[in-house]
Design brief:
2 copies of one chain form a homodimer. By secondary structure, chain A is an alpha/beta fold. In chain A, 44% of the residues lie in helices and 11% in strands. Chain A folds into 3 domains: 93 residues, PLP-dependent transferase-like (Up-down Bundle); 284 residues, Type I PLP-dependent aspartate aminotransferase-like (Major domain) (Aspartate Aminotransferase, domain 2, 3-Layer(aba) Sandwich); 151 residues, Aspartate Aminotransferase, domain 1, CATH 3.90.1150.170. The interface between A and B is large, with 192 and 192 residues.
Amino acid sequence: MNSLRTDNIPPPRKIETTLEYMHKLFIMPNSSDRFIEFGDLLLDMIHDFFQQKGGIHSEIPLKKLAKIFNNIDIPQNQMLIRDVLQEIKGNIINHSVKVANPYYIGHMTSAIPYFMILLEMIAVSLNQNQVKIESAKASTFVEREFLCWMHRLVYQNPSQFYKKNIQNHRFALGNITSDGTVANMTALALAVAKAFPPDGKRFEGIRNEGLPRSLEYYGYRQALVLVSRRGHYSICKIGSILGIGSKGVVFSPVHPYTNKADIDKLWQTIEKIRKEDKRVGKPSRFLALVGIAGTTETGNIDNLDAMAGVARELNAHYHVDAAWGGGALLMENGRELFTGIDKADSVSLDAHKLLFSPNAMGICLFKNIDDSLKLYHTSNYIIRKGSVDLGRFTLEGPRPFACLKPWAAMKIIGRRGYELIFLHACGLQDIFITLIKNDPQFELLNTPELFIINYRFVPKELREMLDRLMLDPRANAEKITQINNVVNEINVELHKKIRVRDTSFVSRTRLESTRYSPRKIVVLRAITINPNTEPHMLEQILVEHRLLGEQIWQDRNLLRKTLHICNKLIDV
Amino acid sequence: MNSLRTDNIPPPRKIETTLEYMHKLFIMPNSSDRFIEFGDLLLDMIHDFFQQKGGIHSEIPLKKLAKIFNNIDIPQNQMLIRDVLQEIKGNIINHSVKVANPYYIGHMTSAIPYFMILLEMIAVSLNQNQVKIESAKASTFVEREFLCWMHRLVYQNPSQFYKKNIQNHRFALGNITSDGTVANMTALALAVAKAFPPDGKRFEGIRNEGLPRSLEYYGYRQALVLVSRRGHYSICKIGSILGIGSKGVVFSPVHPYTNKADIDKLWQTIEKIRKEDKRVGKPSRFLALVGIAGTTETGNIDNLDAMAGVARELNAHYHVDAAWGGGALLMENGRELFTGIDKADSVSLDAHKLLFSPNAMGICLFKNIDDSLKLYHTSNYIIRKGSVDLGRFTLEGPRPFACLKPWAAMKIIGRRGYELIFLHACGLQDIFITLIKNDPQFELLNTPELFIINYRFVPKELREMLDRLMLDPRANAEKITQINNVVNEINVELHKKIRVRDTSFVSRTRLESTRYSPRKIVVLRAITINPNTEPHMLEQILVEHRLLGEQIWQDRNLLRKTLHICNKLIDV
């Protein structure tokens, strides 16, 4: 039974610390049978966890959790494994977020197939370190095979190319990384290396010389990365890390509604920079243009083909951040959404998103395998020159055998299986859109392509006013802003209430790219990828949100606060 | 039974792809009982794997593995989980490196406690994403508690400090990272941020402005990181990433034998840079000085206290890379080795090394918690300003609940248990050193402190010559070099033979810091941390290496090649 709660964990039993006991804890040729015994116990415990009903986030207040995990000292004495597992059950499992819950549609973390747990057991048992063949034998080859699959999925080169390179250790078709941020960092580090190559004379390339000397040597005033306003926050963070600074990441506007990079405005942005270049008398170097295949806030895909053209004209590395959307390439008729992705010099994908692997694993693919050599590095004691070690190409050092999970998932689910999963997600997306559109108190605020829906609750009265005012948005600008401020407040409040109620979960963000642009609009954000989410659940979720929203609207304070606006607007 | 081999995996059974089948694969409230069934099967399979006798690396040639993992297409159709697990057993598990084998003493990847597998099962089942509280409730607090333990282990602040900050969400005591490289990168990104802060006027700080503008604004000609020649190869890689280039990482000499940074020579290095600064008319900015607490090649610890003094004089961030050695702070009488570590502004540790967690997890601790704010970043849709999200401080985005493993290990093993493990490792180290010293055909080439022993096979005849020649190294320089070249070749060959024989494993590297300095000497590298390695195994390993070495020495070709040297030396 699942009755164990935080407060009735039995006190741990004392045990004597001996080396013999320590020996038994470690994996060895005559491995302990306790492993099987505890394994069985744990399988039951995990099984229980998934069968638990109740809230998504557990009711415990954060303050109480802070008190539970409040021991400032490393435990001196050993505890029995059984006791620690009970403590984990009571204090951690019971108070973890049920991200697999089909009503949890707020983040990209969704349900994972249960076989992922089995695969992780294998990966951790083998404990291979992918950095070098000496500690990762078969797994090195599995990683290359998996990278080949992903490369082919994205770039669709002739089979001859893949036959030649699938296990070609002189290059890398791509890198497996700890997450999408490191995948993007890999791509942009490559862009940097390509922009300032060694010239065979005095200059050894930026990886040796550094950014300031490179700019000087090549005569540039600055190095820039271009991406749309929907670019993932990691791009900015990476800009800081790579030394170009967040100011070196230039965000250009998107089309309202579609959230796709506005190519005209992108050129305007570029022209503005060039104008400044002329004034200063030194050009800027465009390191990379980043296209987005699945914006994390709105699930939209840039016009990847048009972006490729821009990158070419700028002589910039073209990176496509498909961390969110990349997996959807497995949909046979989804490919057209991604037209042009094969023109990207590098593409990043996340396995823990649309490949349904556990947190976290990123992938960075290189169109030209020669590019992998631009990230090449070696060391004396591992990843030696001329070795077959994967670590020669990666930004990271030691890495787990994470790719086992998506590799095996491709076999167990199969391409057709993924197709069904995505068809289900598409279906949910369409249903949710319809439900929102048909409800006068909800407003749809994006044009979803990849399973992310932005919407908000708008009290009927305000909605009607807004619609009327929007017939002449310029004349009514001030009033539109005022009402939206109120609606923003309502939706922040609504999001909090949803969290407290805890029977469903959506996230929230703030977008400048709605029909009210450039006003920043608070939106709720739903992601419909959990295969166990059913249409009737989406209905339930919206009903609940509507009820909560109406309650807030009826709240006197808010009413009073908005009354004078209403009065002023009554004659619109 | 464990008879399944690569070549007799049964052909996969065909199954029909339906959405219903897909549903059943995913975790859900009425989760499938198949999970328990497969879990049991897998526990047995893993148990078998650890009981297998035989070679460490599996005999299969790399070329044959390349042919197994040679399918260039993503599988179209689903396969039964059972069939995929059998394939994994035959093709992957059977051909993985047995890093837990007590005769595998060549890399830092060792045996892990079996309960780590159980903990990983829990972590992956919960599938929390540590980036934000909305997808990581209890686990956010566990991470902070664990970071508090590590911080206290390193910095030993008064308990009042930890009581106040253990769950203080406004700061981070440190970051959990995917590995030590990212931990070091976190530290050096912090160093960069501190070196060029915003000045409240025109300059917004390097994270916004970038490195070139920062140098210009503050009037520096370059930014540098200082580390000894034993610095981990990641420091150089990070130099490239951060934009200072590998030339921005200055390696200063170490003392021969001890492999500790030579402080006098460090100052000489600095003075040389300053002299050049004067010539150029612009100073260099020393971003960081990196002390090493456990060099990865030789297991030595810099004089951390003296290094702290240098960093202070340079006004540089003082980082201690304790990725290898940090865990040894758990030894009560090991602390004196680390004297001065508490003066480091940041310290990195790896959980997958001396905390015996699986691959991979790094930790970066901040002495001054205010420093964590210098890495602070937010985003609209997650890690919002004022939130309690861990992701506000990390270089990475999504992160798994990796800290569960070392956190629980601290409870299950306890500080006393770790002490016993380290005492065992110290004992093995001493025994191995004695065995090498007592064998006329082996030469010890470092002064091990933290479980890493460098040695080489030297045929008796050559050893005697070398010893005589080394009485006057300057006069005999040429001859010493020639003999060492031969011994280097023998040891490269020996290492290959050890790999082929496959009953034991040590790694090899090349060191300039032996008594033959500055000659680069090929050394074998043994790491004695596996709790299941016993003294008699070390004896066996050396006997085997000696036999293999003697075989090589007797090999005619090599003999001929060295004959003329011998002839010339016969009268030494």
